[in-house]
Each structure stands twice: as structure tokens, then as C-alpha cells.
Automatic annotation (TrEMBL):
Species classification: Bacteria, Bacillati, Bacillota, Bacilli, Bacillales
Entries under InterPro entries matching the protein: AB_hydrolase_1, AB_hydrolase_fold
Entry keyword annotation includes Hydrolase: yes
Domain AB hydrolase-1: 45-207
Gene3D superfamilies with a match to the protein in the record: alpha/beta hydrolase (3.40.50.1820)
MF (Gene Ontology): hydrolase activity
Species of provenance: Planococcus glaciei
Record protein name field: Alpha/beta hydrolase
Organism domain of life: Bacteria
UniProt entry keywords in alphabetical sequence: Hydrolase
Length: 342
């Protein structure tokens, strides 16, 4: 058993841009965990942003201020991430869904649009299916609907499953881990015949940089590396409970949701944002879902809105303007935002 060494750092937003826009960072005690989040000024209806596995609220920094012009924006660290509580042995869709119920009831206190990226999108789907009184609309941002269900996740489209297995094997012990090992031997297929790998000398250099940072800044999240995407990934990894990933590998996590049944229960407006994907024989699906999955969602939720965006899996970070435009257009279509003259 271990606890999050960074919980006490809550309330330390570094971005002057976010501070100037009125964002603040807080922790909410649900009675079971401490939930870390940032919230912007009350400029409209609530919009709750849920990052991907291994992600933190900081992944949304490029979109927080623009969205806060029309919404009151909340961005979260879910349990096991960032400055929220780590609870090894207690991770599942149901458990995190119940965290969300406590947060929506105790902090947001009115029906909210819930937007989640990747696994955060599955959480948004859980909320839409199980908390209709608390969810005004849901946005699934490149979400692994169907593809993260067993046995498909492990046997057919196994690329992400294998990546989580590797993470657990390489940095699964928080007390004695070298985060650079996560990149050792990591493969990213770019075609049926070509795969990108981080060179071993780069991994060794990164390991040296991390050790140097830890020596100079003991007890602080890792903030080193270049470019900024790598820097944020290392910080997120340093603040991530590996048992969250282990629960996907050993099967504990899947309790609490059947994707098709959850979609059938969705009563609120639904937007699906679909990023780029490929499928290779050796790896399965590279991405969150394929066109067949998107079509199946449409069959189960005929009124859902769909937008294809040619972007990396984390659309809000790599194509922030397109993400903002999609959210704003969806909100206008479903009358979530007040209309001029009304």
C-alpha cells in the first residue's frame, strides 16, 4: 500500500495565463478520496473535462481559457492521477463513476456537460448512462468504446493493452522506478512494415536527466524533457499510480459498465469526436476506435452527433482549435449555451 506523494501540492497553479483568467485549483474530499480539480470563472453552464489514463488536468491547458469565456470549466485529476488520491487495489469503472457522482453533486451542483478523452470518455459515458439528472450532455473524445472491452482489448486490438502491461512491468513500483524505462523498447507502428522506437541512447539520456532533476528537486513531480509533450508526459507518469494500469491488465477495472448497454441508456445529447486510427495485423487497432465502432454507436444512439477530426488521440492538445470549435458548435446545436436575445 502506498499513497500519493503529491497530494499536498494542490492549489499551486503555475500558469499566469490561467490565473489571470480566474482559474483556481482545489481539492474536494468525497469522504473516501481527495479529488483534485481546477475551476474557472462562472461564465456559463458547467463543462467538466476528464483526461485520459496517465493524463492530468494540465493536458487541457490549451483549451481552458477559450472555453471559459462561455462555460464554467472544471478539469479533473481522477483518482490515481495528478494530485488526487491514489487507491491501489480500488480501481474500476464503477468506483470512478461513483467518484464522479460525488464530485458532480458536491462541487458542480447542477447538470453539466461532461467531456472525456480516451478512458475519460468511458467515464463520461458511465455518467451519462447512470447519472441522467446530473449530465446535460456528453462528449466522447476519441474514446475506446467497445475496443477496451474484454476479450477484444487483450486478444484482438491488443496494442494499448500490451502498452499498459509494459508500463506495469517497467515502472510499476513507485518506490523504486526509473520513469525512462517506460520508453525502453517501446514501439509505435507507423505502417505495416515500419515501426518507430526511441533509441536506447535517448532513453539513457532521459534517465540521467530525471535523476538529476530528482536530486535537485526532491519530492517534486518530474518536470524535465523536451519537447513540451514529453515533459508533460513525464510529469504525468511521475504522478500516476501504476496500479490504475495494473487493474486494466489483471482485469479488475472492467467492473461497472457494458458499453452497448450504457449507450442504450444515454438520454442526453451525445457528441463523438473521432481521431485518426489504423489497424495492423501484428498489433491490432492503433487508435481508440475504428469506423465500425463509430457506426455501432450511431446505431445505439441514433441522435448522436459525430465529427471526424484528423488528429492524434489527444485531440484537445494537438488540435485545440478544432476541439474548441466542436464543443462550441455542439453546445449551440443543443441549446446548452444561452442564445442572444433569449
Amino acid at each position: 500500500m502506498y499513497s500519493n506523494p503529491y497530494e499536498h501540492l494542490s492549489g499551486t497553479i503555475k500558469s499566469s495565463k490561467l490565473k489571470k483568467a480566474g482559474f483556481q485549483e482545489f481539492q474536494f474530499d468525497t469522504g473516501e478520496i481527495k479529488f483534485n480539480y481546477v475551476v474557472g470563472p462562472d461564465n456559463g453552464p458547467p463543462l467538466v473535462l476528464i483526461p485520459a489514463q496517465m493524463g492530468m488536468w494540465e493536458s487541457y491547458q490549451k483549451v481552458l481559457v477559450p472555453l471559459s469565456n462561455d462555460f464554467q470549466v472544471f478539469a479533473l485529476d481522477i483518482r490515481g492521477h495528478g494530485k488526487s488520491s491514489w487507491t491501489p487495489g480500488e480501481y474500476s469503472w464503477r468506483i470512478i463513476g461513483e467518484d464522479m457522482e460525488a464530485f458532480l453533486t458536491g462541487v458542480v451542483k447542477r447538470p453539466a456537460m461532461i467531456a472525456g478523452n480516451s478512458s475519460g470518455g468511458i467515464i463520461a459515458l458511465w455518467c451519462a448512462a447512470n447519472l441522467p439528472h446530473l449530465v446535460s450532455a456528453a462528449v466522447l473524445e476519441d474514446t475506446p468504446v467497445f475496443s477496451v472491452e474484454m476479450p477484444r482489448f487483450k486478444e484482438e486490438d491488443r496494442f494499448v493493452y500490451n502498452g499498459l502491461t509494459k508500463l506495469v512491468e517497467n515502472i510499476g513500483n513507485p518506490s523504486s522506478r526509473d520513469l525512462a524505462n517506460y520508453f525502453n523498447g517501446m514501439e509505435m507502428p507507423v505502417s505495416e512494415t515500419r515501426t518507430k522506437r526511441m533509441p536506447p541512447q535517448v532513453v539513457r539520456y532521459l534517465s540521467k536527466k530525471i535523476r538529476k532533476f530528482e536530486k535537485v528537486h526532491p519530492g517534486q513531480p518530474i518536470e524535465t524533457g523536451f519537447p513540451s509533450t514529453l515533459r508533460l508526459l513525464l510529469k504525468s507518469l511521475s504522478m500516476f499510480d501504476p496500479d490504475f494500469a495494473r487493474a486494466f491488465v489483471d482485469g479488475r477495472f472492467y467492473e461497472g459498465i457494458d458499453h452497448a448497454e450504457a449507450l442504450k441508456r444515454v438520454q442526453c445529447p451525445l457528441l463523438v469526436l473521432h481521431g485518426d486510427w489504423q489497424r495492423y495485423p501484428e498489433h491490432g487497432l492503433i487508435g481508440a476506435m475504428d469506423d465500425r465502432d463509430a457506426g455501432r454507436i450511431k446505431e445505439l444512439v441514433p441522435d448522436m452527433k459525430y465529427r471526424k477530426i484528423h488528429a492524434n488521440h489527444v485531440i484537445h492538445a494537438f488540435k485545440p482549435k478544432l476541439y474548441i470549435d466542436a464543443i462550441m458548435e455542439f453546445a449551440a446545436e443543443i441549446d446548452v449555451l444561452p442564445q442572444p436575445g433569449k
